[in-house]
Amino acid sequence: MFNMKTILNTLFSLLLCTFFSPSSFAQKQDKNDSKLTTVVLHSEISCNNCKQRIEKNIPFEKGVKDLKVSLPDKTVTIVFRNDKNSSEKLCEAVSRLGYKSMIIKETPKKN
Amino acid sequence: MYRILFLLSLSLLLPLCSFADGITGRVVSAENDEPITGAYLIWVGTMRGAVTDLDGAFETDQPADAFLLAASCVGYQSDTLDVRTASPLVFRLRPLVMDEVTVSGRLVGSKINRLSALATIDMNSAELCKAACCNLGESFETNASVDVNYADAATGARTIQMLGLSGRYVQMLVENVPNLRGLAAPYGLSYVPGPWMDGIQVSKGVGTVVNGYEAFTGQINIEYKKPTTDELVSANVFAASNGRVEANANLALRLTPRLSTSFMVNASDDLMAMDENDDGFRDEPQVRQLNLLNRWHYRTADGGYNFFLTVKSLSEERRGGHVDFSGSSPRSDLFGVNVRSQRVESWMKNAFIFSESTNIGIATGYIYHDQKSFFGLRICDASQHSYNVNAIFNTHLDADGWLHEFHAGLSSQGDFLDEQATLDAALSQFFAPSLDDVSVGAFAQYTLKKSDVLTLIAGLRADHNSNYDFFLTPRLHLRFAPSERSVIRAAVGKGYRTAALLAENNFLLSSARRWEISDFYGQESAWNMGVNLTRYIDIAGNELTLNAEYYHTAFVRQMTTDMDVSPRLLVAGFSSDRSFADNVQVEAKYSPLRGLELSAAWRWNSAKQTLGGELRQRPLVSRYKGLFTASYATPLKTWQFDANVQFAGGGRVPTTEGNPLAYQRSTSFSPYQLYNAQVTKWFRNWSLYVGCENIANFMQSNPIIAADDPFGRYFDASLIWGPLMSRKFYFGVRFALTRDDDDDD
């Protein structure tokens, strides 16, 4: 006879399996890396709090694939899919968080 | 693959303004032609531009249809040039004449441990997210220095151990005000909800005299989330396969630029009575808890005065014992355990900042705790009032690169405890002790600092206690960095505390042992000394941190609870016989890849005390502890994977010789391991986590002696050395809405 504990353990195991399934978390490998653009923003960031706020929000903008925030250089480097987003929109997204930004470098990425 | 390419391309990009085919130019001061570093250039009508380097030079790609380039810099008038006509492209900016420059900045909140003279580990909210961390007791899973153990098999009391000794020798502070004392000692770790904590600071060895004369083996300070936090609203729910559910909500409001308040509510319950080992007893008690908190923060416009007020209340009921037992009064047919606590805490802090170097801080705290409990037919009720006042004057002066800092102050601590315990129906074991314990003291501390190389902290306090007269507490801390990559720390000092035998060992009532108590209250004291070496080594561009330490604690007088005389007797009191603990720990931390953090730690404990005239290993303490942790976060930190394995060495179990054979246990326990893992998925405003504790499902077998005869003379649920709860799956959701206004003003 199944007791409550067995049922709950099974449910949680299933939940864990779903969570771990490759399709749910593996970042899909982009077949076409030429769609990737790297943009470097100069942003008015001065403290660790600014860095954390950018790291918490920008990954959830469309098409963002990688992000690095450098406090000493005051730069935010974003790799994104240029068919899904643009440097200007990402620059606006960082500015909207309260850190005035401008694009200082943009490189379409080549393989 | 593209991530590796990204990293490579990023390293090439680092000289940010070196564009291949861009427009180049310079920005200089019109006054003297000196280059202006960090001036902004922006193409008018676009978001594109550049920043000048140390020589005032810049290079920028020209967007289509953009010809006007504007240069600006703080302290200068902006200027715009048409790149079609200006050649060479040199901006000459004229200085602005200003009456006053207002500098606004933000304080960096996190302390750098590397520079602390005390061996301190900062656990921030990110660290607390690596495991379920429903409360303080569950927050040390990834910490190698603090062990959390079950105290008994009936109440679910969890106790911490540091340096191989009971957590009662660790001073528990909430925002640097003493807390979790006396009645809160057995269950206090569950009184602090995980989602309320902003961070925990764990320092090993004696603390400084500023926070009092307690802290023999360490100090744990808990910081709650401040009303000024960026999180406007946060909430979380949690559920586990053992039937535990929890809900939490925090609200932080900035009412005016100077006044903020926050409200927190946390409720939890265990919905199922679990009995995995089929001994008829709940493996863990079902704990129902409601926690409420309100806090206020006010500061004046110039920041010269800061005020904090916090009020917290707790209502908790622990229902343990036989799985069929329910109700809130003892029964003679079924063994039940019930511990009900009502607790109100309040603390207030005032800081007067006279200048950059001089300030006065006054902190006060008050706690009322009422506890009603029974363990089978044993009844124990108690109430406690505690207060704490601490006033500190702090000033420092800088002379020839040497910093001299002085702390001086007055403090008072009072504990008023009334207890009643009926251990048998015939009332031959009826105790009603009470304690009025008031200490008043003065302290002074001098800190000498030479840049980041040397820090020496010497402190002394003199206290008068209403029961134990005058006593002196000397403490000395030293930090020396012979090179940028090596740090040596040493500390020595004495500690005292007033111990309340019954209140602090309330969980030992979950046995049929007869209590022989010589004193209910007494003063414990001990010397603690330690040395700690840290070395930072660069390996493949990443830093490896190595740490080795040794601590020795020698008791002058201590509380003893001797369970070795007979399995049916507990001899408790205070003793000046020889008792000490030695502790060696080595630890390594390394991040071999971006996002991957590994750590390994191993600690050997040797804790001995004189029991029955013989120097013996402390019972129920593992001879060694090991911890391996691995944490990986994807580059965008949208996924996080955490796993750890804890190794616990064997140890000694008090004798059960003399019991019938079925009720005897081995006099030692074997080493065991515990495996835990968690996955977290982060979204912009919320996160989801799923995890499993005790993956290998290791449990102490037959933890309760005579579970089939709980009202008999052999019953004992207090000989606990290992986990009591089976494999547990859990999941939780956290939600946080960050406020839009970013000004701290």
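qc> Confidence is low (pLDDT under 50) at residues 4-20, 98-112 of chain B.
qc> done
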